[in-house]
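Lab notebook page, bench 4
Experiment: in silico fold of construct C2
Operator: M.H.
Input chain length: 99 residues
Purpose: comparison with the prior construct
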Amino acid sequence: MSFLRNFFGLGPKVNCKELIANGALLIDVRTPSEFAQGKPKGAKNIPLDKINNEVSKIKKLNKPIVLCCASGMRSGQATSILKSNGIEAHNGGGWYNFK
């Protein structure tokens, strides 16, 4: 599996829970109504359609970012956006991984 991760440019898998324990910010990119129905402890809600507007603020935090959503699809998109802006970002997948 790690061969495929490296082959497709995904890099080594990181332990997102460990990153958060060491100071990374958890951002949930679901809609506000989804977020209100259940959320991971300590997560900040920035919906995917607003993430571009927040790039400069996120960059100023100068810390790793872990992103989550319902399934990992939207958080994957948000991860790509942040990485393309020079931010250390990791797709944490579904928010339930961080309950």
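Observations: Residues 14-98 form a domain with the Oxidized Rhodanese; domain 1 fold (CATH 3.40.250.10). Helices lie at 2-7, 16-21, 32-37, 51-61, 73-84.
Next step: discuss at group meeting.
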